[in-house]
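Please go through the protein record below and explain what the tokens say about the fold. Record follows.
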Amino acid sequence: MRTILHPTADLFRRRMRRLAGEAQASGGRVPMREILALAKEMADMPVREIERLLDDADHGVRVGAVSIMDWQARRRTTDAEARQALFDLYMRRHDRIDNWDLVAALHKGDRRVTLTLRPGAQPAGAPATRVYASGSWPRTVTGIPEASVPGMRMLHLGLRVTDLERSLAFYTALGYAELGGVPETEFGSLTMLKLLDDPFVSLELVHDPARPVEDIGAVNHLVVQVDDLEATIADLATRGVTAEPPTDPGPGIRTSWLTDPDGYRIELVQWPPGHSAGMTAADFA
């Protein structure tokens, strides 16, 4: 992919308008992968021009701005002065990085934010931010919605099962690993599971022989993200797990469905290239 020399905010906006026109002609919106690709082309944009993009009312343009910041901050050729200028912009204009998909553009996939200082360090007079640990790298997250309660995140779902061994065999074949359990609680035994790429327990099997599953209506479905749907379906077949034929519910999105021993439905999702691991506000923009 070519890199544009002397990119400007005006040029980025013109390219975005062209992409938006093409997307509207086909009845859709600009795919995130195209915004990120455009940002990579314009990765040499000066900080003053990036700030102009952050001022734009168009959400996609602001996504492009923070993606350009990410590209620059991760480049080995970016010197300390330029890196500090990026960080200063990030801290000064955090009001424009105002939802989670914009934050996600600063640490796409397994990439870690390189704009942050060491944990807890901030320039004098900088607006308050929160520093989280992500693997061995710190990342500073701003733009947290005011309605959010500080220090909260979703951990796992407790799923009641009728036959623990039968369900363990199914979810193990699906790719979950058993990390441990709690044998006696007021709900029954609790068995903790996680997928290989999950950072922590994501599913808890709840079992009480006296309380078999009689109604699964309260749980509509679970969702598991996969990198390659066809390969996953083929691999599951070798383990005795049958998946339904893939469908394409949206541009670049592929899904398939499974049913566990108690009848719970599980959706396998393969996102289009450049999509974040989960759904964000960008999916509904």
User: Anything to note?
Assistant: The two ends are 27 Å apart (CA to CA). Residues 9-117 form one domain. The longest strand covers residues 253-259. Residues 35 and 276 are 13 Å apart (CA to CA).
